[in-house]
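Could you please review the protein record set out just below?
***
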Amino acid sequence: MTIEATGADAACCGTVSDGTVDAAQAEQIARVFKALGDPTRVRLLSLISAAPDGELCICDLTEPVGLSQPTVSHHMKQLAEAGLVTREQRGKWAFYRVAPRGLADAAATLAPR
């Protein structure tokens, strides 16, 4: 038995599929927002974005957040895996920059069209 919507009910029972995210996109967007769900990671991202040359060494990130270098490295790994920062190894130190499109792409995907 099939029930067909008529009149005003027909307008609210449509199928939504155009412009929605697929499973892979949803996973990536969830990683971004999960990474931003931790206040320490938000602070780290803010510190890097405010840096005069747009990058900071891991050694420059520990004191402002009051955490050990291994703990900050763990947080930075989460931000990198979410696509929010890029990492460049120089000798024994890692330098981080805010990824140009990381947050913007996630927000644009979910913005009303």
